[in-house]
Design brief:
binds magnesium ion, about 20% strand, about 350 residues, single chain, binds threonylcarbamoyladenylate, globular, five-stranded parallel beta sheet
């Protein structure tokens, strides 16, 4: 299959209408959102969801997120809208927050990975919103990477992973946030965060009064199964062996320097993730800068690109600093720990 790569802005009505038509006919179109690029298909057609799993090589028990462009679109796809959802939507939609509801009959089980709940999000991105409307209002979209690869933060990443496997890629430039949306489950008495993202527990608590966080996010040794099926798979793993080094900056730098020297002495190609203040200190084969120390937004925006670049450069051993777990930092550390298979050295 030939994949069409189309550069778009939000007023490219003709292109967006054509992309919407592809979706209505059962096709797959990747599109930008404010978090990462999504791989879109018609959420209400079982066959489209099946095609999404196939194109990504994703296990079909890992449910998709349904993207909408209007709050009113929610009524048709969920059994009930709890008050908490209305409050959260008022504050955070459109935006990087996915909410989980009991699904209506309209949503095929193929879209929800066999579950009777459905995840819904309204992205804060003009191209995404116009595209969703042009496609009929309900786009099922996981991140537009091949399963097991880092999520795409630009159209070139989607092209690398999915060219020849999908109908079209809408290139709207780099995304803003760089890590996937926060997921909050509203189907139980107490709302629960299943995946950390830009919208933090504190921000949700301010609106709802209370929210819990899936224990497996906070405690890496927790033996419970994560509640979001997608969080159970080994994700975002670079080809090289990635280890996080955590502690005071001077001690971390000293440890990373000696570990990198050791790896280089064994003939390994080495990589490092550090911040602006320290990039000059390292002589690894690939030195990546995640922005200034303490700038978690810069780290989020750079993370997946850095991991992809290590793969392209065939880096075999990678050391990364740890990021603060405040605010967006919790999402960054959650993804980085997964990429590292939870290998972390405390110094
Ligand atoms: O920012 C985002 O959310 C991006 C953009 C494209 O919107 N999408 C995204 O989709 O990250 P994906 O498929 O890569 O991740 C969806 C996650 C998976 O971990 C999945 O298991 C979980 O959401 N999920 C979806 N529906 C669920 C449900 N009904 N119950 C529990 N978890 C669910
Ligand atoms: Mg994903």
């Amino acid at each position: 299959m030939e994949t069409l790569l189309v550069k778009v802005t939000c007023d490219a009505q003709e292109e967006l209408t054509a992309a919407g038509e592809r979706i209505k006919q059962g096709g797959l179109v990747a599109f930008p959102t404010e978090t990462v690029y999504g791989l879109g298909g018609d959420a209400l057609q079982a066959a489209s969801s099946r095609r999404i799993y196939e194109a990504k090589g994703r296990p079909s028990d890992n449910p998709l997120i349904v993207h909408i462009a209007e709050f009113g679109a929610l009524h048709a796809i969920v059994r009930e809208i709890p008050q908490s959802a209305i409050l959260l939507a008022e504050k955070f939609w459109p935006g990087p927050l996915t909410m989980i509801f009991h699904k209506s009959e309209l949503v095929p089980l193929e879209t929800t990975g066999g579950l009777d709940t459905v995840a819904v999000r309204m992205p804060n991105h003009d191209i995404a919103l116009s595209f969703i409307r042009a496609a009929g209002g309900y786009i099922a979209a996981p991140s537009a990477n091949a399963s097991g690869r880092p999520s795409p933060t630009c159209a070139a990443h989607v092209w690398e992973d999915l060219q020849g496997r999908i109908d079209m890629i809408l290139d709207g430039g780099d995304v803003g946030i760089g890590v996937e949306s926060t997921i909050v489950d509203l189907t139980d008495d107490v709302p629960m965060i299943l995946r950390p993202g830009f919208i933090t527990a504190d921000m949700i608590r301010e609106v709802l009064g209370r929210v819990e966080i899936d224990r497996t996010i906070l405690d890496v040794n927790c033996k419970d199964r994560p509640k979001a099926p997608g969080m159970r798979y080994r994700h975002y793993a670079p080809k090289g062996e990635l280890t996080i080094v955590e502690g005071e900056p001077d001690a971390v730098n000293a440890t990373m320097l000696s570990l990198l020297t050791e790896a280089a002495a064994q003939g390994k190609k080495t990589g490092v993730i550090t911040t602006t203040e320290y990039v000059d200190k390292f002589a690894a084969d690939s030195v990546k800068c995640a922005g200034d120390r303490g700038d978690e937004a810069a780290a989020a925006a750079a993370l997946y690109r850095m991991l992809r670049e290590f793969d392209e450069e065939d880096i075999e051993v990678i050391y990364s600093i740890a990021f603060s777990e405040d605010g967006l930092g919790q999402a960054v550390m959650n993804r980085l720990l997964k990429a590292a298979g939870h290998q972390i050295i405390q110094v």
